[in-house]
């Protein structure tokens, strides 16, 4: 028979055995999920608190903002922040997100190229920077097949875009111009009637017959298809390499200057999120839909979600040359004057993160901050 153990030793063993349960009860490690990318090199793993107690991140409830939806839903962004709290904010349109950034109530945002350009130009280059890409594609021309059978049939018809001067509006106006047709950019009247309609309203307008089609992002495009529409053109067909930026990540210059460590940590989270999305498309699709349901109270129907999801390419590359092209289209349409976009990008931290992850660095197309 072994000798009895001293009481202090028994107490020490009991405390040691209980420690994992105590840590779990406090929440440490409880956020880990299967199939998540490893975060061994994350900012949080160093055990050092970051310079801001919170970071306010804006996004749209759109599938083209999948990096934000999945990164927030799965905790992949917050995991990198070592206790810095993420405060997510959902927006319905680019101008309101830019206003929040300008007003100091938002630090980082997922947003389209046109609002990025407009926000940068209006502040004379003093407020925002594009720090990463997020998504390409996911925009389609969907029409009523009973009224429109070919692209030439669009002449004289009513086609919706989400907002005057927004990314899809600019692309459609350029396409009309390339056809040799004319449209007044302010009123939308001309050889084609361009009807600026909120994406939430467009499906009802389509079903009621007040519009003949729409040039819109996902999931609105697939919603129109589920209501009887037909895809007449996928915008990717108009671009070299079938790629064009649809979602950027922007940051307040003030926040970037004061909290570069937090911005870098967020970018580690978005790069790992994008890697996870591309490696696990079905799980990522379900995760994005779960976040949409949490935000809006309603998930997307499978007949909308399933065709919409594969049309969006998730990427860290901001595809800067395509933003430059989109700005040229806006000038051509007389929606903006020739902008000075020098300095709109600062990809320093993104390329640092990509290099550390063994991924290729990305280009700012000569529009980087000096």
Give an overview of the whole structure:
By secondary structure, the chain is α/β, with parallel strands linked by helices. The protein contains 13 helices and eleven strands. It has helices spanning 7-25, 66-73, 94-103, 113-122, 167-178, 202-208, 220-226, 253-258, 260-279, 281-296, 302-308, 320-332, 348-356; strands at residues 54-59, 85-90, 108-111, 128-137, 139-143, 158-161, 193-196, 213-217, 230-234, 245-252, 312-314. A six-stranded mixed sheet has the order 2-1-3-10-4-11, with helices on both faces. Helix 5 (167-178) links the parallel strand 6 and strand 7. Helix 2 (66-73) crosses helix 10 (281-296), helix 5 packs across helix 12 and helix 7 (220-226) crosses helix 11 (302-308). The radius of gyration is 24 Å and the shape is globular.
